[in-house]
Amino acid sequence: MGKHNKIKAHTLYDIKDGKLERKNKKCPRCKSFLATDKNRLFCGGCGYSEQKSKSEDKKE
Ligand SMILES: [Zn+2]
């Protein structure tokens, strides 16, 4: 048998009040969806990454 090709849908969508929301932006370089990593967005395709929220400049 082949390998399991698990699609991590929960990394691309967020379920809010029973609604499916697309929360991720697309990569400006390769147009793949960006994965979220805490306060960063990360592209698994080309390695592009950016800050998630530039407006919210929270300092610890
Ligand atoms: Zn990319």
Keyphrases for this structure?
3-stranded antiparallel beta sheet, mainly beta, 1 helix, 60 residues, binds zinc ion, 7% helix, single chain, two-stranded antiparallel ribbon, extended
Descriptive notes:
- The chain has 60 residues and is mainly beta.
- It has one domain (10-51).
- Helix content is 7%, strand content 32%.
- It has one helix at 9-12; strands at 13-16, 19-22, 34-37, 40-43, 49-51.
- The strands form 2 sheets. It has a 3-stranded antiparallel sheet with strand order 3-4-5, with no helix packed on it. A two-stranded antiparallel sheet has the order 1-2.
- A hairpin with a 2-residue loop joins strand 1 (13-16) and strand 2 (19-22).
- The longest helix has 4 residues, at 9-12.
- The radius of gyration is 14 Å and the shape is extended.
- The N and C termini lie far apart (50 Å).
- The mean pLDDT is 76.
Briefly characterize the structure.
With 60 residues, the protein is mainly beta. Helix content is 7%, strand content 32%.
